[in-house]
């Protein structure tokens, strides 16, 4: 059987973080930009033509090319639209250490007029999953606390368990999964972790 392959960064933490940290308050002096439209639950289009991918948040995907919307995808976009509208269409941007992704989108933390971090707000409402991709991990702890509060309250995506078993993975892409490790190998390509003869996880050498 051909194994599915997932690549990415993995973080495990058992540290309890206080709820006060979940707000990820805005730093002083952020540049304010005008939003043209909300593309989906984690992407904005600015009037200056830039597309902004919000750091630390992976919202459910809207349906494309005949595919159906993932659960809570529309709710995530509508909530982000409401948050942007509440800020009169203007948001503050804090660019990441890595400022662009491979699609050419600007990578940034996004803040409302009240100084609230919009990624943390969506995470706290269960409308997205936290992701952490080095080097853009400065707000990892407070965003983790925001997601944890949603998981404990079983909000949104966490009303039911989102964790899949390794043998349920049929395609590449984002997933929360669990499985028993059956093999670990290391070579020039990084560390390869095989789960139950079904999925191979790759951790790149630089991570």
List the helices and strands and how they pair.
Elements: E1 4-7, E2 31-40, E3 43-46, E4 51-54, E5 57-58, H1 73-86, E6 90-100, E7 106-111, H2 118-124, E8 129-130, H3 140-153, E9 163-165, E10 176-178, E11 181-187, E12 190-195, E13 199-203
Parallel strand pairs: 1-13, 4-7, 9-10
Antiparallel strand pairs: 2-3, 2-6, 3-4, 5-8, 6-7, 11-12, 12-13
Q: Any overview of this molecule?
A:
Residues 7-22 have low confidence and may be disordered. Strand 6 and strand 7 form a beta hairpin. The strands form four sheets. A five-stranded mixed beta barrel has the order 2-3-4-7-6. Strands 1-13-12-11 form a four-stranded mixed sheet, with no helix packed on it. The protein is α+β, with helices and mostly antiparallel strands. Helices cover 17% and strands 32% of the residues. The radius of gyration is 18 Å and the shape is globular. The protein has two domains: 4-10 and 160-203, no CATH class; 19-159, OB fold (Dihydrolipoamide Acetyltransferase, E2P) (Beta Barrel). It is built from three helices and 13 strands, in the order E-E-E-E-E-H-E-E-H-E-H-E-E-E-E-E.
Sequence of strands across the biggest β-sheet: 2-3-4-7-6
Contiguous uncertain segments of 5+ residues = 7-22
What string, H for helix and E for strand, traces the elements in order? EEEEEHEEHEHEEEEE
Number of domains: 2
In percent, how helical is the residue content?
10-25%
**First CA to last CA: what distance?**
28 Å
DSSP strand count: 13
CATH architecture of the largest domain: Beta Barrel
What percent of residues are in strands?
A: 25-35%
How many DSSP helices? 3
Helix- and strand-based class? alpha+beta
Taking all Cα atoms into account, the compactness measure Rg is 18 Å
* Spatial shape: globular
At the fold tier of CATH, the topology name of the largest domain is OB fold (Dihydrolipoamide Acetyltransferase, E2P)
- Mean pLDDT comes to 87
């Amino acid at each position: 059987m051909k194994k599915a392959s997932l690549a990415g960064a993995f973080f495990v933490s058992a540290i309890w973080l206080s709820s006060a940290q979940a707000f990820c308050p805005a730093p002083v002096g952020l540049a304010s930009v005008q939003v043209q439209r909300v593309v989906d639950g984690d992407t904005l289009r600015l009037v200056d033509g830039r597309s902004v991918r919000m750091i630390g948040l992976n919202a459910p995907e809207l349906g494309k090319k005949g595919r159906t919307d993932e659960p809570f995808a529309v709710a995530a976009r509508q909530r982000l639209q409401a948050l942007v509208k509440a800020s009169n269409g203007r948001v503050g941007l804090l660019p990441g250490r890595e400022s662009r992704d491979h699609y050419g989108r600007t990578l940034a933390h996004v803040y409302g007029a009240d100084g609230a971090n919009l990624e943390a707000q969506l995470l706290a409402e269960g409308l997205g999953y936290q992701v952490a991709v080095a080097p853009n991990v400065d707000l990892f702890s407070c965003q983790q606390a925001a997601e944890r509060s949603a998981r404990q309250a079983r909000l949104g995506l966490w009303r039911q368990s989102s964790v899949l078993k390794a043998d349920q993975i049929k395609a590449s892409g984002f997933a929360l999964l669990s499985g028993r490790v059956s093999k670990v190998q290391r070579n020039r390509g990084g560390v390869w972790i095989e789960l139950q003869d079904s999925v191979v996880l790759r951790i790149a050498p630089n991570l």
